[in-house]
Amino acid sequence: MKNPIISVIVPIYNVEKFLLKCLKSIDKQTFKEKEVILINDGSEDSSGRIAKEFALRRNNFFFIDKKNEGLSAARNTGLEVARGEYISFIDSDDFVHPKFLERLYELLKRHKSDISYCNYFLYFPESKLKFSYPFSPIKSVYSAEKALKKLISANTLHSFAWNKLYKKSLFVDNSIKFEHLYFEDIVTIPRLFYFADKIAITSKHLYYYTQRKGSIVRTMDANKIDDFVRSYGSIRNFLQQQEEYEVYEKSMGSYAKKVKLLKNIYIFNLHLKALNFRGIAKNFRNSSKSVKFFLEDDYETTEGVPDVPFPVKTPNKKNKKLNF
Asked: Considering the entire predicted model, what is its pTM?
């Protein structure tokens, strides 16, 4: 086939219960000038077989089998082989509205923007209920600076890779790849917004974000909590390297409050899961000190993703009773 307009990148993991629904929703897109790149990142269930068989029956689906290196590496693999002028990411446990690509593409072209953005539903597969995410943005077109402030603050815009359409040149021209850590979206998407000219937003809900037990947020451990804080530090690193931190300092302060709240919830659940609350106060203090470290006026940037100066410690698991 001739070079497609849009390349859809779908990393494949252990999601055999959800994968076929995802692939069918992509196949039924009203936008036809697309290629779909399925990257099997070492899945251990039948997901790889399902994806490969699905791709073999369609001339615009392509299957790549690779060893497990994580979501970032899978997305980067997709970016390396993508031929489209525009890039979309869809997670393999989610699914999309039939006009997901068409409407995002029309929006992007109509406003001559570099990124288009849609709202999404939280989808609960057990009950098949869907809920609109609260504080969703309204139809609008933002400059990169205004959009990035909202994205960093995480009030109405959010740093997910998947509910957007991007010009591929944003990745290529600015040497942007997904960093190898959990919450890699929080590191990567603000960089794309920064280098964009305009971001166009539709209020329509075109993406269905599946809420399942095995997701990253629902399986938080000490390493993931530290990566959550590191992703915040990475935004500070990037903005300071661009000599633009002062422009976004207020937004960074606003987001810091959310980071502190969420990481405390994650830490509490970490100790609850272990049935051991010994050391929880120290973990609260350490993670708060790490966030504060990345907010200091005299913070010095580092190469790559920064280290967390005060890491969270994993509590020992207790079998019988809560240990205070």
From this structure: 0.93
